[in-house]
Amino acid sequence: MPQQRPKWAYTPQAMTAPYRSKPRAEYRDFRVNEDPDRLDRVYVNILGGGGDRMLTEEVKWLAVTHKSFDHGRRGFNDRLAFFGKRTVDLQISSALVTSNPKSRPEPDQYGRMPFQHPALEGLEGLNQDSKERATDIKQLAGIAANSGLAGVLRWKPKKAENLKGSGEDLVLAQALYAIVGAIALQKGGEVANKIARDRILRPLGLA
Questions:
Q1: How does pLDDT run across 64-82, given as a tens digit for each residue?
Q2: Which end of the chain lies in a sparser environment, N or C, as judged by fewer CB atoms within 10 Å?
Q3: Is the Cα torsion angle 22, 25, 26, 32 positive or negative in sign?
Q4: CA nearest neighbour of 176 among 83, 63, 95, 49
Q5: pLDDT tens track for 100-127
Q6: Closest CA to 149 of 115, 119, 179
Q7: Contact 74, 188 (CB under 8 A)
Q8: What totals of helices (H) and strands (E) does the chain contain, helices first?
Q9: CA–CA separation, 66 vs 181, rounded Å?
């Protein structure tokens, strides 16, 4: 019996047209990584020792696959990224609240003191501007690029000679979120939260 190829390695036969509707444009050809060992090394860089064994083989490839790759016929990471972004956002919100210095309330012009409660301390630091700065796409893309994630992304840029102009930063950030989302689904929220704090928030100076 012939050995079955993994799903990430080929386009499903039922989703392949019998012939091309237009000639292949060679100048737009963009090659992606197909080496599992190289992918494993990147996961170790991102997740630390043993990071290459935290996810199943299929999910490891899915997390780095953008919907532009192969017309989305091999699956893509949108849903994983959505879940991962919620996980990272929660950790960033928690970090902003706990890291904000406690302000000493002052009475207003009528001598009244603002209401105080321990559960409300630090909320001044949790605002839209601070969250947008913490989740800036370029910062997240820089973290992903430093780990080598750019070399294993599976996507199809609009212009192979201009990856930045084709949205590489956004694709990198999405893949980083997708990895966190995959960890949350396969290893649980506690592990995913720790990964988010150690591997994303700490380089951003929030942990």
A1: 999 999 888 889 999 999 9
A2: N
A3: negative
A4: 63
A5: 666 677 888 888 888 877 777 767 667 7
A6: 179
A7: no
A8: 7, 0
A9: 15
